[in-house]
């Protein structure tokens, strides 16, 4: 029981404190690739600190939904982070919800965020909400089908069981179904975290914004919570990808040394994945909004192929 | 001994008294608040009594049957309360009770209802019909009860018969219902002829005793016949026509429980009248479920009539229920009773949950309609400040129907996912692939539903009012809020307490498959819901809810540390420097669904027409007229040609029906002789 509580607190701290670093890392690498220096690895922390201490302006048209949204978003995203295995195969709250709970908790946060966008009464909020809900809706089947394909291999939707099933099998990720599912989930990751070519996190040009348009009216601590949640969501989805497909280094015993190695490997894997996302982001232009469905259709086809190869070659590939 | 039989009979009697009393009151007395209280009270107490009977049926876990006096030879009014009936009676009771509470306030202030007493009477009659449908255990009696229910609902749909829309909706409803009944009739006759009797008990597992072809035909006919009532695509067209025009308390009952009679009928046929069905039957049901779910929600997204939107969502949810049923049928075909039980529980639990949140949403929409006198979302907005309680209830319903944790919709969709996922390992050949794909399409459905309810709630309740009517909206009366509160509470309780509620289904699965499945579905003192084993997947809505509350402490601490001293100010929304933000700047419902309309353009075939008037330059229009519509595919490509063909046929039949009594007498005589010949030979 005490170990459980410690692991919950530990993972909460990990998700809370580490997630802005991934954002910072992505931004720095992106800046370097564009031959800029970038603001440094601690900028997101400084941003959060500053925003939390500022006053805020609430639009006069807004209702309690607007103010409640950041809290709901923050709590749901953080809770999703507690359901996935990060450094040990056993996620702290794994028993209380598997991958379906993760996806649906993120959906709950998004539901409120989109309402928050509509609550301001400006066109931008509605525009952002509409696009966000559309893109997430058409990303959903690809996401779920890929997740199901992995879950079928493990015989479970419980993420700790999925990771456990994967731990023993080296080279498993080379099986066609795993590779296809990974590719599909990678596209979904880009769409869900709002990166180029789907959305541009750095843009403030009104007509191309998606995520930024929804949160245009947020300021001060509320904005801090939303930005923080966005970082956490990115970390949650990335962790899902790396630990489901490359579960190397997940510690099963919990010895201090093993833990340390696990942490190092975990950070390493996440940074590699972040690097891949940044490379995609730098190498591509943003797609027109109505080209995005085609990209997500590709993701769906990939996950369908992953499923079919599972069907043809059995759940463990080859 | 629980007095199930007495409770049931007295509930039925109370409904009957309410129905007759309402008519009497309509003719001979003035409708006052007291008479309304009396008749809504009769609906409420009848609902409670019937609920008691349902509870008794589930607790005793055995069937109880007796005959009502019919007074007509050969008509055996056999009433049988078995676990399946009991479950549906319980669902009926929950919904009817809250609708009865709501109706009191609704009918008292509803200016459009010419005779509240008559409406009450029909409400009681509808409830009586439903109570009979769920327990009638004889083919003829069942069909009579079925028709009573259809007729009562028809009269309620055309309450506002001055409006053409109402008459058309009602006509479409009755036409579709009758063709459905026709199919049921043939299907039941095929089964009953094999059983040699019309009693349901003798028809248990009778489907297997028919020749394969006849059994298949009967199955398809019964599936389609009940499917008309349930609103499966492509037999759904009456639903979005009839539900919106009915008074809102009736729409709530129609979507909540009336269409579930179709689900009840299917459950009865699939799991009682048929033994192990061939795999194609399960595939058919699964396929129809997937199509109904995806198309239902897509059409819902295109609606900006709040009640039509909800009606399309009923189609979607019926699809989700049928996914569970289809999976259950397939599992039984492949010999996995445990999985079949899981899938059946998922379907039935979603039936109850959909009843609760859809009823809640329709009552919410009714309250909005009541206050703003419009169903058009484009004229609403800002209602959360004017109707705060209704907004909260509607929001709870919206979260529940979107399948988001920790409410009840999430739990039943989670169970459906688990059942579908289990299908890959448990079945063979290409059937295996169908399951995860169905799961992915369920995910698409749920995500689109969330998008749709962001739109429905956001456009209706948030930001600035878009019309005078919305500006002047007022919160509804206490009894209307009470009815909604009951349902919202039920959504919350069933979401958080799902694993303690699920054992209710044990008698049902015992009856259908001979096993108690829910023992494996809960662990950790019932706090954790599992899909058979914790390793296979588990979820715990109470813990998730608790953790959400606990984690909200973190922002609170941050706020205490830093944010406390900072001031919050209220300011105008950014309007790009234009003077003053008005409701015209807001995103509309049509705009909100525009991306999806374009993405699924091949299905919708959207058409729009823009007329701009200008004087000097086209960049400065004086007035813009915008019209946009989507093509209703099924109506255009299937129903319109069908209607034309039927009309043409009817015209060619006209000489036969010339209006001459003599000719008619001759027809009757000829028919009689033919029947006699047929009888003598047979």
Summed up:
The complex is a heterodimer of chains A (318) and B (682). Chain A has helices at 2-33, 43-53, 64-83, 99-119, 123-154, 159-167, 176-192, 211-214, 220-245, 256-283, 292-313, and one strand at residues 56-59.
Report on the architecture of this protein.
The complex is a heterodimer of chains A (about 325) and B (about 675). Chain A has about 325 residues and is mainly α. Chain A is built from eleven helices and one strand; from the N terminus they run ααβααααααααα. The mean pLDDT of chain A is about 90. Chain B is mainly alpha-helical. Among the domains of chain B are: about 1-185 and about 230-255, no CATH class; about 635-680. Chain B has helices spanning about 5-30, 35-60, 85-110, 115-135, 140-155, 165-195, 210-230, 240-245, 250-260, 260-275, 280-300, 305-335, 335-370, 385, 390-400, 410-425, 430-460, 470, 480-495, 500, 505-515, 540-550, 555-560, 590, 595-600, 600-605, 635-655, 660-680; strands at about 65-70, 75-80, 520-525, 530, 540, 570, 605-615, 620-630. The longest helix of chain B has about 35 residues, at about 335-370.
- Our count of helices of chain B gives 28
The SS-based structural class of chain A is mainly alpha
Give the averaged pLDDT of chain A, no decimals: 88
Q: How far is it from the N-terminal to the C-terminal residue of chain B, by CA?
A: 49 Å
Number of helices of chain A: 11
The structural class of chain B is mainly alpha
Lateral strand order in the biggest sheet of chain B: 3-4-5
Order of helices and strands of chain A: HHEHHHHHHHHH
Number of strands of chain A: 1
The structural domain count of chain A equals 1
Our Rg estimate of chain B from Cα atoms comes to 26 Å
Largest interface: A-B, 90 and 90 residues
Strand content of chain B: 5-15%
Are there runs of chain B of 5+ residues with pLDDT below 50, and where?
none
Radius of gyration of chain A: 19 Å
Q: Estimate the strand proportion of chain A.
A: under 5%
Fraction in helix of chain B: 55-70%
């Amino acid at each position: 029981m005490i170990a459980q509580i410690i692991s919950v607190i530990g993972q909460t701290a990990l998700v809370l404190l580490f997630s802005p670093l991934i954002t910072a890392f992505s931004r720095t690498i992106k800046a370097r690739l564009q031959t800029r220096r970038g603001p440094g690895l601690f900028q997101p922390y400084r941003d959060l600190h500053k925003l939390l201490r500022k006053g805020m302006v609430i639009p006069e048209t807004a209702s309690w939904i607007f103010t409640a949204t950041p809290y709901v978003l923050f709590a749901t995203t953080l809770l999703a982070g507690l359901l996935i295995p990060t450094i040990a195969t056993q996620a702290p709250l794994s028993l209380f919800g598997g991958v379906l709970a993760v996806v649906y908790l993120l959906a709950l946060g998004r539901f409120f965020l989109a309402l928050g966008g509509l609550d301001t009464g400006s066109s931008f909020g509605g525009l952002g909400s509409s696009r966000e809900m559309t893109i997430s809706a058409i990303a959903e089947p690809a996401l779920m089908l890929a997740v199901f394909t992995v879950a079928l291999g493990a015989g479970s939707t419980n993420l700790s069981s999925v990771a456990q099933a994967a731990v023993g099998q080296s080279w498993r990720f080379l099986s066609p179904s795993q590779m296809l599912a990974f590719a599909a989930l990678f596209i979904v990751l880009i769409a869900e975290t709002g990166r180029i070519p789907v959305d541009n996190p750095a843009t403030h040009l009104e007509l191309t914004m998606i995520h930024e348009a929804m949160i245009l009216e947020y300021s001060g601590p509320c904005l801090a919570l939303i930005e923080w949640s966005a970082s956490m969501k990115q970390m949650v989805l990335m962790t899902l990808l790396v630990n489901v497909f490359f579960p190397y280094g997940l510690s099963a015993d919990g010895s201090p040394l093993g833990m340390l190695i696990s942490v190092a490997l975990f950070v390493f894997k996440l940074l590699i994945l972040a690097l891949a996302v940044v490379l995609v982001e730098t190498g591509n232009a943003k797609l027109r909004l109505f080209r995005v469905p085609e990209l997500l259709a590709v993701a769906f086809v990939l996950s369908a192929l992953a499923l079919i190869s599972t069907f043809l070659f059995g759940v463990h590939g080859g | 001994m629980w007095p199930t039989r007495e409770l049931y009979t007295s509930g039925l009697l109370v409904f009957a008294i309410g129905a007759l009393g309402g008519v009497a009151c309509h003719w001979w007395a003035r409708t006052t608040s007291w008479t309304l209280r009396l008749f809504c009270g009769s609906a409420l107490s009848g609902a409670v009594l019937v609920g008691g009977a349902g509870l008794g049926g589930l607790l005793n876990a055995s069937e109880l049957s007796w005959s009502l006096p019919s007074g007509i030879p050969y008509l055996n009014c056999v009433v049988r309360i078995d676990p399946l009936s009991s479950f549906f009676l319980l669902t009926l009771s929950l919904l009817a009770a809250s609708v009865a509470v709501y109706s009191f306030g609704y009918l008292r202030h509803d200016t459009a209802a010419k005779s509240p007493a008559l409406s009450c009477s029909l409400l009681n009659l509808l409830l009586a019909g439903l109570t009979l449908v769920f327990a009638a255990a004889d083919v003829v009696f069942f069909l009579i009860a079925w028709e009573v229910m259809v007729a009562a609902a028809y009269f309620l749909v055309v309450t506002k018969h001055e409006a053409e829309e109402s008459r058309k909706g009602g006509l479409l409803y009755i036409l579709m219902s009758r063709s459905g009944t026709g199919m049921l009739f043939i299907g039941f006759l095929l089964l009953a002829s094999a059983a040699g009797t019309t009693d349901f008990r003798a028809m248990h597992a009778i489907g297997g005793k028919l020749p394969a072809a006849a059994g298949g035909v009967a199955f398809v006919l019964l599936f389609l016949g009940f499917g008309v009532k349930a609103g499966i695509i492509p037999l759904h067209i009456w639903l979005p026509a009839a539900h919106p025009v009915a008074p809102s308390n009736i729409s709530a009952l129609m979507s909540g429980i009336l269409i579930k009679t179709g689900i009840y009928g299917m459950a009865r046929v699939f799991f009682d009248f048929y033994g192990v069905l061939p795999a194609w039957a399960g595939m058919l049901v699964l396929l129809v479920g997937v199509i109904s779910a995806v198309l239902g929600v897509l059409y819902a997204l295109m609606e900006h009539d709040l009640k039509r939107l909800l009606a399309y969502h009923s189609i979607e949810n019926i699809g989700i229920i049928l996914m569970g049923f289809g999976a259950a049928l397939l599992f039984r075909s492949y010999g996995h009773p445990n999985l079949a039980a899981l899938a059946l529980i998922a379907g039935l639990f979603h039936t109850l949950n959909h009843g609760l949140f859809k009823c809640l949403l329709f009552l919410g929409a009714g309250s909005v309609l009541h206050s703003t006198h419009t169903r058009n979302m484009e004229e609403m907005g800002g209602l959360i400040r004017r109707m705060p309680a209704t907004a909260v209830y509607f929001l709870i319903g919206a979260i529940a129907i979107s399948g988001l944790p920790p409410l009840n919709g999430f739990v039943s969709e989670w169970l459906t996912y688990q059942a579908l996922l289990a299908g890959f390992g448990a079945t063979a050949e290409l059937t295996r692939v169908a399951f995860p794909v169905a799961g992915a399409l369920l995910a698409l459905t749920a995500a689109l539903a969330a998008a749709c309810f962001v739109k429905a709630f956001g456009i209706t309740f948030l930001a600035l009012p878009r019309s005078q009517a919305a500006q002047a909206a007022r919160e509804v009366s206490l009894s209307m809020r009470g009815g909604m509160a009951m349902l919202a509470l039920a959504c919350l309780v069933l979401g958080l307490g799902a694993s303690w509620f699920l054992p209710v289904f044990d008698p049902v699965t015992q009856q259908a498959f001979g096993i108690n499945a829910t023992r494996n579905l809960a662990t950790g003192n019932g706090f954790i819901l599992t899909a058979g084993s914790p390793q296979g997947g588990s979820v715990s809505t109470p813990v998730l809810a608790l953790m959400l509350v606990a984690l909200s402490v973190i922002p609170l601490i941050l706020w205490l540390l830093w944010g406390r001293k900072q001031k919050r100010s209220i300011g105008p929304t950014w309007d790009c420097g234009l003077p003053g933000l008005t409701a015209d700047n807001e995103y509309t419902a049509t705009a909100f669904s525009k991306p999806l309309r374009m993405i699924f353009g091949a299905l919708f075939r959207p058409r729009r027409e823009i007329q701009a008037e200008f004087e000097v330059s086209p960049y400065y229009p004086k007035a813009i007229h915008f019209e946009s519509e989507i093509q209703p595919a099924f109506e255009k490509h299937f129903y319109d040609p069908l209607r034309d063909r039927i009309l043409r046929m009817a015209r060619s039949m006209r000489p036969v029906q010339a209006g001459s009594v003599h000719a008619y007498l001759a027809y009757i005589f000829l028919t009689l002789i033919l029947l006699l010949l047929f009888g003598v030979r047979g």
